[in-house]
Automatic annotation (TrEMBL), chain A:
EC number annotated for this UniProt entry: 2.7.1.121
PROSITE patterns, per database record: PTS_EIIA_TYPE_4
GO MF annotation: an example: phosphoenolpyruvate-glycerone phosphotransferase activity
Name of the molecule in the record: phosphoenolpyruvate--glycerone phosphotransferase
The PTS EIIA type-4 domain, residue ranges: 1-128
Keywords from the named record: Kinase, Transferase
Catalytic activity: dihydroxyacetone + phosphoenolpyruvate = dihydroxyacetone phosphate + pyruvate
Organism ancestry: Bacteria, Bacillati, Bacillota, Clostridia, Thermoanaerobacterales
Organism encoding this protein: Thermoanaerobacterium aotearoense SCUT27
Domain of life: Bacteria
Record note on quaternary structure: Homodimer. The dihydroxyacetone kinase complex is composed of a homodimer of DhaM, a homodimer of DhaK and the subunit DhaL.
GO CC term (a single one): membrane
Gene Ontology terms: biological process: glycerol catabolic process; phosphoenolpyruvate-dependent sugar phosphotransferase system
Record function comment: Component of the dihydroxyacetone kinase complex, which is responsible for the phosphoenolpyruvate (PEP)-dependent phosphorylation of dihydroxyacetone. DhaM serves as the phosphoryl donor. Is phosphorylated by phosphoenolpyruvate in an EI- and HPr-dependent reaction, and a phosphorelay system on histidine residues finally leads to phosphoryl transfer to DhaL and dihydroxyacetone.
Amino acid sequence: MVGIVIVSHSKKVADGLYELADQMTGGKIRIGKSGGTKDGRLGTNVDEIVEEIKKCESGDGVLVLVDLGSSVMSAQMALEFLDGEYAGKVEIADAPLVEGTIAASVEASIGSDILKVKAVAEAAKNLVKI
Amino acid sequence: MMLTKSDVTNILDVIIKIIEDNRQYLTDLDAAIGDADHGINLDRGFKAVRDKMTQFLDKDIGTILKNVGMVLVSTVGGASGPLYGTFFMRMGNAVSGKSVLDENDIVAMFEAGLSGIKERGKAQFGDKTMIDAMEPALNELKKALSEGRNLKEAIGAAANAAYNGVLMTKDIAAKKGRASYLGERSIGHQDPGATSAYLMIKTVADYVDKLQQ
């Protein structure tokens, strides 16, 4: 199954969103999370993103969900560092973090492939709430 | 005029010091339009460079610069980490294996570093970013060298161009980063990224100016 990695500037956001997505999918898929810097500040951490992607890759690929700014650039750097055996298997979704992560996690849990999971995450941009 | 490996490491030492000295200034600039951490983040990154530098000082200039970039990527935490990290890594790639740099090497590495930043940040001149200091500096460096001016004069002219770029950022609205959420309200504030880029270019210019050649 496709794995999901959550990347936020805030450890609390990443932890909380992980909790939501894991409950929605009942532990069926691998969900990784990276929030904050190594020394506990707000910010992003390329090394940790790389590690989480590796942990979540089971052969079907990994979709990375990001919040803002440096999380996008850090995720892109992580993908460059992972190139090689991971080439073409890891994608970054251009999606809102919370809605996109939930939609992608549920889609991954029913066995969809990485492109479908990514498309569903990105479609969450158009979700009408009210 | 050539720059040796010890010139490069001396320049890095001064950059580390300049960023430390300007930590609060850069952070104050960022407080006006960003998340008030530019100076703090950069200082943390460059201090990590200082701590780890002994591990790669015996390598060639290209490898040293690539390692500086890797350390910045891993330690800065904000957008300036991937941006300056990419800048130093690309500069290192451009001068791979070299132990001295001539004028062409310096232009090539600056060009490679700047295009790395543009790709990484998907930004261009006029977006109120570090590019606003770097691009005029590179253009001026190339122009001065093509007119037959020596490296000392050319880098001095580049630093002046970078400074004018920094001043320009006061008059324009941000299109990238957290400042872009402020839109027009970011006008009137000097960009912290352009300022840190200028400080680094000025450091190189001052160092080269003092070289006896």
